Task: structure prediction
Amino acid sequence: MVAESVKVTCMDTTTGKNKSTFTAWKLELDAQVQKLCGLSVEDLPDCTDQYGMWDGGIRPKQAALFIVTDAGFYDPCEQVEDIYSTPEVF
Result:
């Protein structure tokens, strides 16, 4: 028996946006944060509104730089060119 994949779309009732898109954005954000500081975004202090960043159209790479810098784990003057050397996924 072959299992069929079912795509479930969860809509945010306040904004009408697809929550699965936010989930994908957050996974990419976590990957970018790990590249910058070696930690998961969940390991850093909750000092930013990630949903607001996604809703505002900020790309995961840009959000990661802001989050890691804001948490004090990264000096943006050191490696800014390195994180922008790969093409944007989203």
Observations:
- The chain has one domain: 19-83.
- Residues 1-9 have pLDDT under 50 and may be disordered.
